[in-house]
Amino acid sequence: MTRNTVYLLGLWCVVGLLFLGVLVIPIGLGIGVALWDGDTKMLTEISAIMAVTILFTAALFIGIRTYQARRIRRLLQSPSPDSLLAFCRRSLRPGLIPNGDALLAHGCANGCILYGQFADARSYLRSVDWEHRPPLIAALRQAADALLCYFDTREFDRGLAIARSAQQQASVTSAFPGAGMSKAAFAAHVQTGEVLTGQCTSSTIDALEKQFRQLPLLGKLLAAWALTQAYRNSGDTQRANEKERFLRESAPHCHALQFPSAHMN
Which of 123, 158, 221, 262 has the maximum number of C-beta atoms within 10 A of its C-beta? Predict the structure, then answer.
């Protein structure tokens, strides 16, 4: 069993215990009492409460994710990353979630990278001790370092090597919820490096297009930037312009994403 599997199992065990304590056990006890007493009316009422509770929980989860997506879209219209960073601090609070400090540092660093504030991004990453973290968490640091190579230092080969290392470290079984999204995000970092180093193939473009459709907005931005590069390198001006238009409309002040240039080999 890999360290990432152990880490995720621990997280989901906590979630499962909370779910049991808040919902399953009380409702189960109620159903047991109803069956013991032969109270069919009570059994029907408890079943209805359980169904409504599950539906409400699912709707709440979807609603929160939709709200967050819309909120991030609005924040990216800001001329500075300050609002986006404040949103990260409200959403990712160290102490409330495991490795919250690392998740917050990664989120803030990514926001700074998008706006071209590379020194601030490095400062956020240095503020956290990444040693002895689960590989899935440590991979976040490497993913941010790869972006700094792509957008700041232009060390494309080094960035690709770092991105591949991050992808390997972040490997998780598909059985966990969100595993597909995580794999797509790390793969986008690798494929962006392949575009920048002239190793792009039709398969690379197909994968990036899939990730562009699959990932949330912040992930779409990287995929769109890489696709703009790839389409320009291949002479497909129409598709390059489409992706660049998406970047301009979605993140007009994110300087790192503007005016992508062809790979520099």
Answer: 221
- How far apart (Å, rounded) are the C-alpha atoms in residues 264 and 143? 21
Establish if 89 belongs to a structural domain: no
Q: Report the number of distinct structural domains present in the chain.
A: 1
- pTM for the complete prediction? 0.77
Structural domain includes residue 38: no
- Give pLDDT, residue 2: 65
Radius of gyration of the chain (CA): 22
Residue 149 domain flag: yes
Residue 110 CB burial class (10 angstroms; 0-12, 13-18, ≥19): buried
- Asked if the structure places residue 99 within a domain, the reply is no
Please give the Cα distance from 119 to 114 (Å, whole number). Answer: 12
Q: What is the pLDDT of residues 208-234, one digit of tens each?
A: 999 999 999 999 999 999 999 999 999
Please say if the pLDDT value at position 8 is more than 60: no
28-76: pLDDT as tens digits: 555 555 555 665 665 565 556 555 555 655 564 456 556 677 888 999 9
What is the 3-class SS of the chain, one letter each residue?
A: CCHHHHHHHHHHHHHHHHHHHHHHHHHHHHHHHHHHHCCHHHHHHHHHHHHHHHHHHHHHHHHHHHHHHHHHHHHCCCCCCHHHHHHHHHHCCECCECCHHHHHHHHHHHHHHHCCCHHHHHHHHHCCCCCCCCHHHHHHHHHHHHHHHHHHHCCHHHHHHHHHHHHHHCCCCCCCCCHHHHHHHHHHHHHHHHHHCCCCCHHHHHHHHHHHHHCCHHHHHHHHHHHHHHHHHHCCHHHHHHHHHHHHHHCCCCHHHCCCCCCCC
Q: What are phi and psi of 181, to 5 degrees?
A: -65, -40
